[in-house]
Design a protein that fits this description.
single chain; mainly alpha; 434 Repressor (Amino-terminal Domain); 2 domains; 7 helices; elongated
Length: 104
């Protein structure tokens, strides 16, 4: 993982939530250009600020550093929903996922 990954991932997750750099900066209690400075590579967030950014974006640090999760919020919701399925339905969903993955 590199600093470029951190800034690109913040941008990706921010855009998914349709939040402007200005709004995110303001909501996190910073000057209007803070997230722009992070996104442009001028600064990196401190660890405390990184945790605040994760909370704000609705992801855990593990999800943040899992680039294979292009939409971690949707993945979390799917997992929550799956936990409520009956065994037969769970097996059906599993079969559908396997089929979809084989078609790629």
């Amino acid at each position: 993982m590199t600093a470029d990954f951190v800034r690109e991932r913040i941008t990706q997750l921010r855009i998914q939530k349709n939040i402007s750099e200005y709004k995110m900066s303001y909501d996190l209690g910073h000057s209007r250009g803070y997230i722009n400075n992070v996104s442009s590579g001028k600064v990196l967030p401190s660890m405390n600020e990184f945790f605040s950014i994760c909370d704000y974006l609705g992801v855990t640090p593990v999800e943040f550093f899992s680039p294979e999760l292009s939409n971690p919020e949707a993945t979390k919701q799917i997992v929550k929903d799956i936990e409520h399925l009956k065994e037969d339905d769970l097996l059906l969903v599993q079969a559908m996922i396997k089929r979809l993955l084989n078609e790629k």
